[in-house]
Amino acid sequence: MRQVKRLFYIILLNVLISGITVIVVLQVWQRNHPTLPAGSTPVVIIVTPTGADASQNPDLPGTKPPTDTGVLVIGTIQVTPTARMLVYQVKEGDSLGALAIQFNLSVEDLLIANNLTDPDSLYAGQIIYIPTAPLPKVTDTPTVPTVVASRTPRPSATPTFGPTITSTATEPGQEPQVVIGTVIGAGDLDIEHVVLNRTGNGDLSLSGWRLEDGAGKEYLFPRLTLYKGGTINLYTRTGQDSVADLFWGLSSPIWRTGKLISLFDAQDNLRATYTVP
Questions:
Q1: From the centroid of its chain, how far is CA 69?
Q2: Closest to 213 in 3D by CA, of 276, 270, 259
Q3: Domain 41-131 is classified in which CATH homologous superfamily?
Q4: Quick one: CATH architecture of 177-275?
Q5: Are 107 and 227 in contact (CB under 8 A)?
Q6: Where are the domains of the chain?
Q7: pTM reported for the whole predicted model
């Protein structure tokens, strides 16, 4: 009988020790592996382009050193499954318009994703979020207009070049325009280029537009949409076109002091001029 009691106490002691061990292990596991809130989706954010130095971005939480693959993982964020974001470090010369073209988005998507109001507020080294897909558009319920007794003729629907006229008219002076900002490096083929800036609201297609030097040379723009606040550099020399830089393909510089630059749209309307200082 005494041996049975001793065996019982030994078994009971083992059960207590095992239970305490399990509780301690579970607490340690939960401390090191916190559970995600219900409905959230962890997304691994990768800096593009690769090779950025994580130590230069102390504002980013959860920064980790480069992995063996050469890709820099800078942490996780909680987003809905339909709004995944990439983290991008702004480079010198970047603009929201150029980034919108590169990632097939609209400038409005980038402004909303980064809680920005000024499209010209980017600076080199800034970290911004870029949606992997266009953001869903929020449509307001249209207001039914009041019907009046008198009838007025419906305006003609003759198409005109420029932004589409909707119920919300564009404010005067805010139509999309292209301005020839300056000429940099005139006379030096390696760096000579014309800087064109977008002003006004909306998007503007440059397809079919041309730039002339007044001496028989003209450059025909490719299919290109210039967004609000965007900038395009037109280099005289040969090079590879990108979302921010275009190349005329000439073998010698053409700009000098006093020369007139003219910009025409696809309907041969003069849209901008500039005299090289």
A1: 26
A2: 259
A3: LysM domain (3.10.350.10)
A4: Sandwich (2.60)
A5: yes
A6: 41-131, 177-275
A7: 0.41
Which two structure tokens, joined as six digits, stand for 218?
């003209």
Please report, rounded to a whole number, the percentage of residues in the chain having pLDDT higher than 90: 28
The reply to whether omega before 58 is within 30° of 0 (cis) is no
Check: CB of residue 177 under 8 Å from CB of residue 206: no
Residue 275 and residue 260 in contact, taking contact as beta carbons nearer than 8 Å: yes
CA distance 223 to 146: 42
Given a contact cutoff of 8 angstroms between Cβ atoms, the answer to whether 259 and 213 are in contact is: yes
For the stretch 29-63, pLDDT in tens is 667 655 544 443 444 444 344 334 444 444 444 44
Residue type, 236: T
Confidence of residue 155 (pLDDT cuts 50, 70, 90): very low
Are 120 and 262 in contact, with CB atoms under 8 Å apart? no
Residue 169 tokens read as 């008219």
How many Å is the Cα radius of gyration of the chain? 30
